[in-house]
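As promised in the previous annual report, we have extended the structural survey to additional targets. Below is the entry for HTH cro/C1-type domain-containing protein.
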Amino acid sequence: MKFKKRIASRIKQFREELGFPQKYLADLVGVSRQTIYYLERGSYNPSLTISFKISDIFKKPIQEIFYQEPIIKEILEGKPLSELREIAELAGIKLEKLASLSEIDDKQLIRDFKEDTLI
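The corresponding structure token record, generated without further manual editing, is:
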């Protein structure tokens, strides 16, 4: 649970540095104020879409806000292979690291990406 609290405190810190009330950030992200409240308490796991919106709003790399292996594992769980490339690019994670976090064979993941992109 410590990692959720660290992420929660970063989100609150960045929001306050920008002078945004929770309601304003919620409106920008497209969620309720209560969602931001629970996110800042560490009792809500944001979706990948919400995570990237927050990263964009704060103008911070997503890994600066959210990168903790347990969080990444939760986000990746159950995602189809077709979504992993986008996740890797947006999060700035190397394919090998992404494979290890998602418990996918890294050689197979890289082979699939190369075949898909004709590299």
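Confidence is low (pLDDT under 50) at residues 115-119. The radius of gyration is 16 Å. These points will be discussed at the next consortium meeting with the crystallography subgroup.
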